[in-house]
Amino acid sequence: MSMERTLNHHTTRRKVKVLVAKIGLDGHDRGAKVIARALRDAGFEVVYTGLRQTVEQVVAAAIQEDVDIIGVNQHEGSHIYIARKLVEKLREYGADDIPVVMGGSIPVVDVDVLKSIGVKEVFLPGTPIREIVDKLMKLAEERRRTGRV
Amino acid sequence: MVKLYSKEALEEILKAYKDWEENLLPQWLSRMPERQEEFTTLSGIPLKHFYTPADLKDFDYMEKLGVPGAYPFTRGIHATMYRARLWTMRMFSGYGGPEETNERLKMLIRAGETGLSLAFDNPTLVGVDPDDPLAEGAVGVVGVSVPTVVDMEVVFRDINLGEVTTNMTINAPAPVLLSFYVAVAEKQGVSYDRIGGTTQNDPLKEFIGQKTHVFPPEAAVKVAMDVIEWSVKNIPKWNPISISGYHIREAGATAVQELAFTLADGIEYVRQLIARGLDVDEFAPRLSFFFDAHINFFEEIAKFRAARRMWAKIMRDWFGAKKPRSWWMRFHVQTAGCSLYPQQPWLNIVRTTIEALAAVLGGCQSLHTNAFDEPFRVPSEFAAKIALRTQQIIAYETGVADVIDPLAGSYFIEWLTDEIEERAWRYIERIERMGGMLEAVKKGYPQREVEEAAYRFQREVEEGKRLIVGVNIFREEDIEEVRRVPLLEFNQEEVERRQKERVRKVRSMRDEVRWRRALDELRRAAERGENIMPYVLNAVKAYATLGEIMGVLKDVYGTYVEPPYY
Amino acid sequence: MATKDYVLSLVERAERGDRRALGRLLTILEDVSSETAWVLEYLAGRSRGAHVIGVTGIPGSGKSSLISRMIRVLRDKGYRVAVITIDPTSPLSSGAILGDRLRMQEHATDPGVFIRSVTTAGALGGLSLSALAMIEAFDALGYDKVIVETVGVGQSETHVMHAADTIVVVTMPGAGDDVQALKAGVLEIGDIYVVNKSDKPEASKTYEYMLFVAEKGEIGRSGAWKPVVVKTSSTLGMGIRELVEAVEKHLEYLRNSGEKLSRLSSRRRLLVKLLAEKIVLDLLDKVAEEELAKTHEGLEGFYKRAIEIARTTGEKLLNLKIQ
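Structure tokens for the assembled complex are given below, as produced in the milestone run.
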């Protein structure tokens, strides 16, 4: 059973909490780690779940940690497959109010596909960190204003 | 010691330098300030305006340079270098199933490639079968899926393994993939002494970059040493290890870190092999290396030259190797994947060209040039061909391969080579004090250093201290043209289905008794601490799959989970 | 403000096994406010006597991997396990990277396991209060074992450790000064000492030394329990069963000696004290804001009212005879 409710009080919650995830077997974690550090330095709480995670593990962690955003870093080409599954699982567990963002080696043509699946933002290599921080901040605020559980 | 410059000459030069510094420089600066307050290499080495013999005042030509083909090999490991034989043009390739990759390999051979290099998919890299839940959606995506000896056979259909050399970028599962290869060669009727190629098989760097680690550090090194020991004794033309800086660099290391950590890895392996009772001259000639060619042109050339000089010294003076062959550092180079960007992607062709030129001027033995579409996907045939042709233009049109080590004697290049060497030694000393690279890796030292360097670089880009065309300067917001870049398309779902089916078929058709016995024997050998290679080869011939063999080894050795280094 | 109804509905849903509601509920407990008090009031009387296990030790001793291994054994025994991991906050940005759960991710999807990360400075109202409130929630919601992991430095972390029923101190072989480090603060008060990474050759030396100091009574909490020393290797999964057995034996000791109840009561006393403190301090902040907004006598006005609040609350607390 899922109850809809506005959580105004959460706009005053202290820190934006972001889950940074690598899903699948790909070990290219430079981007994930740089982002994790940058977000920490921007005052975020960053939950890093490490390498070789399944979609289920990431969703479980997001729910247990009650994060504001899930950020997935993919360099192995299966981003569309993973995005679909992630969005689907979040819905299944009633957690699809948690916005998903993605970054990594993603063809430009796939950006629209990912957005149509439900990914809120896609960050290609070379995106300034400031831009990422700003967008995540906005997404978190937006969710805290309207998020339900 | 032969001094290059007389005392009188140096005095005069210094006088001229001082004069420039005190008179000319301030005049010019007052009229036109410099573009930056400080100029540094990509690794952060500060640079002067220009270099003179005074920067090399104690330069001992024979000790530092000598001649090509002789100690300290700064100028190249061969006496004739590219005048006799060009570097091997070895394009890292593979995607989809064995069928797709077999076609791609044959295309590249037709296009003039001179050595093969297999890219495996992530399930293969970490040793799981295509029907493992972890493999879902990843089969054949970043490389070819090779879970059984049958798949390997298809990869090399119509390719004679006695006539080509094959590089396999494989680490933890190296014993398995090498056994697949050997078994296929055997089946083709190729004798062991004709099997040539390379297994990357460099476990320590996996904890710093690439991160396809499976076993904990100690066991990982043990398994890799098993492969080396077995190969040296059984397949003498094989390079059982490619000690790799490439992935360390791609993970964010500086050129100095890449060099130092790679050499420190090499030192650790040599010690391990000597401790097994091997003679250093027996295996040293089979050790090979692999570096990154990044975009900071001169720094890269200096790095390659310093690398050769340092390794020769390490092998001769530290380990007492007697054969000059043991002092050689033979290395493969790949242009820097991390220097490529999705913005205006065709610019990547230019970057790759410059990087490839640095690799050639640095004296590499083989070279992979990245395709311009790599920030998006595994290269299309079109992009892969341009990348190969880039090397061919450097080799056949530019003339840079006609004179050996042409940049030697440049005051700047020699100074920078010395400087990089000096900085790398300092890192190596620190690692030695920790008890060697295995201990350092267990402590997370190189991991932390590299993560910090990666973050530092990112901040420099953010602050505009590092400029990247199309990214933080000369940006174009219109991406319509980028959308039109034709990318490699293949039916991944179909490949995944086919690969799952094949692995199941192999499992259902094999001799159950023989298969079970082979795996049991492998388990016991691993538990006893024996060299596992003969047992892996035996299991492969009994049609044990990659995932099954790795499963047995994981049971015995444990599985590594990377801690969060910060 | 969220309504009381909503907050309580979260508790109800969490009781029915809704993990999403539990995750959200923990956030309300983490960011202590008057809502926290509602939740705690509601949960009061529902304690099922969960066994709170504090795991502490020097950084790099492998606490998280050890906990992950322990979870597996505890699950095999049929226990439901909750874990609270406490990560340090960056002093520069006040942001944090919460990496401890990474080692326990293999249990993420197990419905009988719930893992939550907290930062040392992130929790409004202090880490101790947040962690203690979370323990109450896990206890009331039927988690049999609540494991709290910290590096055990700093006052609030010490508080949390003292609130545990069983304290496991993790060390590793190799450095003599590591054992010396045990003598500092919370590391001294273990009920069980673990020499982790005992696949290392130097392990037996460290183990012998630990046995020696435990025997001599140089370490351990007061009481009849004599600290136990266990050798483990979280990489190879060795000694984990023995460790869990020792933890179980300690629980049995606590129950038989009546210490279990006294620990529960001191844990709750601490929670109530910190909660009261927090509520008073929040009130003072509010007063300060109001009074200081008034020009001229702002500072004086605030000062007067603050003293009054401190006095009356103090008296109230005294009347309640809380510590």
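The longest strand of chain B covers residues 287-293. The CA atoms of residues 291 and 336 of chain B lie 9 Å apart. Further analysis is deferred to the final report.
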